[in-house]
């Protein structure tokens, strides 16, 4: 289960509404399943960004280091599905890390529609939905 605090949630939504119609992404920082801060990051995918996202490993390591220095952890990754539902795609699963929560935000016509969170297993074969609260 994951709980996203209001300011972090608003930052996530506003970032992925801005990147629309491309996928937007970023990291979620906090502890014990509570997201206290969101860190929007550039989509580093070199193909069509309407369909996929990549977080630059350098960004991940930097944010991870900075968070730990403040006693916080990277608890997950968020990204958007422009004009698409908030499911966890096969490709999302193949690129996932099992110790992260993955929040997918569905953005339709440039506005937030709904969101789901997924927790991939260690074999990257499935990602069960987990309870998500925000705001
Ligand atoms: Zn996706």
CATH topology heading: Cytidine Deaminase, domain 2
Fraction of residues in β-strands? 35-45%
CATH top level?
A: Alpha Beta
Radius of gyration, whole Å: 13 Å
Q: Could you tell me which ligands this complex binds, including any ions or cofactors?
A: zinc ion
Overall, the morphology is globular
Which oligomerization state do the chains in this entry correspond to?
single chain
Question: Any guess at the CATH architecture?
Answer: 3-Layer(aba) Sandwich
Low-confidence stretches: none
Give descriptors for this structure.
globular, 8 strands, eight-stranded mixed sheet, Cytidine Deaminase, domain 2, alpha/beta, 135 residues, binds zinc ion
Give an account of the 3D structure.
The protein is of the alpha/beta class. The chain has one domain: 3-Layer(aba) Sandwich (Cytidine Deaminase, domain 2), CATH 3.40.140. It has 3 helices and 8 strands. It has helices spanning 6-19, 57-69, 90-94, and strands spanning 2-4, 25-31, 34-41, 73-82, 101-108, 111-118, 129-130, 132-134. An 8-stranded mixed β-sheet has the order 7-6-5-4-2-3-1-8. A hairpin with a 2-residue loop joins strand 5 (101-108) and strand 6. The chain is globular and about 35 Å long. The model has no long low-confidence stretch (mean pLDDT 97). Zinc ion is lined by residues 79, 81, 89, 92, 104. The site of zinc ion has 5 residues, from strand 4.
């Amino acid at each position: 289960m994951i709980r996203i605090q209001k300011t972090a949630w608003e930052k996530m939504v506003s970032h992925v509404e801005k990147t629309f119609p491309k996928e937007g992404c970023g990291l979620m920082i906090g502890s014990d399943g509570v997201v206290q801060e969101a860190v929007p990051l550039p989509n580093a995918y070199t193909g069509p960004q309407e369909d996929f996202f990549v977080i630059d490993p350098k960004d991940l390591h930097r944010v991870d280091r900075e968070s730990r220095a403040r006693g916080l952890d990277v608890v997950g990754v968020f990204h958007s599905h422009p004009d698409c539902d908030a499911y966890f795609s096969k490709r999302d699963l193949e690129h996932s890390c099992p110790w992260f929560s993955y929040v997918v935000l569905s953005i339709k016509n440039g506005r937030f529609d709904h969101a789901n969170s997924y927790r991939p297993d260690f074999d990257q074969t499935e990602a069960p939905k987990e309870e998500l609260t925000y705001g």
